[in-house]
Write a structure and sequence with these properties.
This protein has about 100 residues and is mostly beta strands. Helices cover about 0% and strands about 40% of the residues.
Length: about 100
């Protein structure tokens, strides 16, 4: 008679608590330089529907980019200040539209 395979006990992994790196503090008196946008690579959109049926499409629009001189993040990458606005399109259901006349 063949031997029965032993059942393996399920291993439980206990995750160590995540310790975030210390917060990065940018020196506010450091000069910056304008970095013109050369090309838009892609534009991300977010779509939402609220309880009355109205749909929103939200797209970020980068207005300007400035590089902070001689400052870098924890990974050694240069710091940038990005001025962003949102473009918001709405599509409301017919029952919410203003009546003509």
């Amino acid at each position: 008679m063949p031997k029965k395979a032993k059942k393996k006990k399920a291993q439980v992994r206990i995750a160590m608590p995540f310790t975030p790196p210390p917060p990065f503090v940018m020196k506010l008196d450091t000069p910056t330089e304008d970095r013109p946008i050369k090309k838009v690579m892609s534009i991300g959109t977010s779509k939402y529907q609220i309880s009355d049926g109205t749909e929103f499409t939200v797209r970020p629009v980068v207005l300007s980019v400035r590089r902070v001189k001689n400052q870098f993040n924890e990974l050694g990458q240069p710091l940038y200040i990005v001025n962003i606005a949102n473009s918001i399109d709405t599509k409301a259901p017919a029952k919410l539209m203003k009546k003509k006349g």
